[in-house]
Design a protein that fits this description.
Blueprint (H helix, E strand, L loop, with lengths): L1 E6 L7 E2 L19 E2 L1 E3 L2 E3 L10 E6 L6 E6 L7 H11 L1 E6 L6 H11 L6 E5 L11 H15 L3 E4 L23 H10 L3 E3 L18 H6 L13 H14 L5 E3 H4 L5 H10 L3 E4 L4 H5 L2 H10 L4 E2 L14 H9 L27 H16 L10
Parallel strand pairs: 7-8, 8-9, 9-10, 10-11, 11-12, 12-13, 13-14
Antiparallel strand pairs: 1-6, 2-3, 4-5
Length: 387
């Protein structure tokens, strides 16, 4: 059901930050500690500052996507009941969900048994790499064998977390680069086995900048100081992305999915350059709704131009209560609503701004929501009616 209302939206200016409250699956919201925007003029400080703007703007409620969706970027723990996941997916119009936290070894076997076996067509599992064994002589061959066994069991792909290239070190104390040759047999095996590699490399540009009054993600980095990669202890953001690009170029037979718009959300021209240079590179749009929604003209043009190379994802999982994203994403992608919150909880997760809907054409929506994922994952593409 799509309900359109006309109501004022909220706005905010400068900010103060408090600690975030964490929730777990199926738990009710708890009260939050004091936090929110504040402003000062001279000696006068007003907090919290939550003005009601005079704007009267359209609010479109989108409970379900226009087409069935595949959430290519989800994470859920083994404590989540498969039936609860499936019920939440039905409610949200998500046909398939992909857990990128499948693990390795016995944990991977358990995740495949618990979720893939419970609903093979709907709950998919990606494996991970045990980098604690990077110095072992059989590191690569053991992981290739794991992927081969997993593929026979229904494994859907491989997920690489952002610590590769940033914090993982080998026995010598050297940072393990994304393009370390010890990983080449694994990338090649993924191509041979038709397992896409969803890779998170680097992070938003603000995470590599000083955490000061000029940093647009100051609020987020104050809540999560360990997310900052500023300083000599870390390689530059540009070097990490260059390492990833070299791997993609070296392994043309392997499909790489760049998490979070390939971490080019602030610079969509850089994203377009990568997509043009690497035919085996696609991206998901998870956790970059704020970047897309605050540059709606450019974002709409880029998503339409590269409609075959973008996949829907949320970086959450269906039914998770804290920072729910699915319906906000539907509104962002489908409507022409203006100046609305990109979050549905007490504090903005990435910065003090509002977003604008992209009102993408139906053909583009159908591809981004699911058809591109069908192709990348090797699943059968079906003609789907409007949801």
């Amino acid at each position: 059901m799509r309900v359109t209302l006309r109501t004022p939206l909220t706005s905010a200016l400068a900010l103060l930050v408090g600690a975030a409250t964490a929730w777990t699956f199926a738990q009710p919201r708890e009260s939050d500690p004091p936090m929110g925007p504040a402003v000062f003029v001279g000696e006068t400080v007003l907090k919290p500052y939550d003005p009601t703007p005079a704007l009267v703007t359209k609010v479109t409620r989108v409970d379900r996507p226009k087409f069935p969706a595949t959430d290519i970027h989800a994470h859920w723990p083994a404590s989540v009941e498969p039936a609860a996941l499936l019920a939440a997916m039905d409610d949200l119009g998500v046909e398939r969900s992909v857990n990128l936290s499948g693990g390795f070894g016995p944990q991977l076997d358990q995740m495949l048994s618990r979720y893939h076996d419970a609903s093979p067509g709907r709950l998919a599992i990606f494996a991970n790499i045990d980098f604690s064994r990077i110095d072992a002589p059989t590191f690569a061959s053991d992981h290739v064998a794991m992927l081969e066994r997993g593929r026979a069991r229904g494994l859907a792909g491989l997920k690489i977390f952002k610590n590769l290239g940033l914090t993982i070190r080998d026995a010598s104390g050297r940072l393990v680069a994304i393009d370390d040759p010890r990983l080449d047999p694994i990338w090649a095996a993924c191509g041979r086995l038709k397992l896409p590699v969803l890779i998170h490399s680097a992070d938003p540009a603000a995470f590599f900048a000083p955490v000061d009054e000029h940093n647009e993600r100051w609020l987020q980095l104050k809540r999560h100081p360990d997310w900052s990669f500023h300083g000599d202890r870390f390689p530059s953001r540009e070097e990490v992305l260059a390492q990833r690009d070299r791997v993609i170029a070296r392994h043309r037979g392997t499909t790489f999915i760049g998490a979070h718009l390939g971490d080019h959300g602030e610079d969509l021209s850089a994203l377009e350059q990568r997509l043009a240079a690497h035919p085996n590179f696609v991206v998901d749009l998870s956790a970059r709704e704020a970047e897309l929604g605050r540059q709606p003209y450019t974002a709409r043009r880029v998503l339409i131009r590269w409609q075959d190379r973008v996949l829907f994802g949320t970086d959450r999982y269906p039914g998770r209560l804290d920072q729910p994203r699915h319906r906000l994403y539907y509104r962002l992608l489908e409507t022409d609503d203006e100046y609305f919150k990109y979050y549905d909880h007490p504090f903005p997760p990435t910065g003090e701004w509002r977003v604008y809907g992209l009102h993408l054409p139906d053909g583009v929506l159908a591809k981004i929501y699911q058809r591109n994922a069908d192709r990348v994952l090797g699943w059968r593409v079906k003609e789907r009616a409007k949801g």
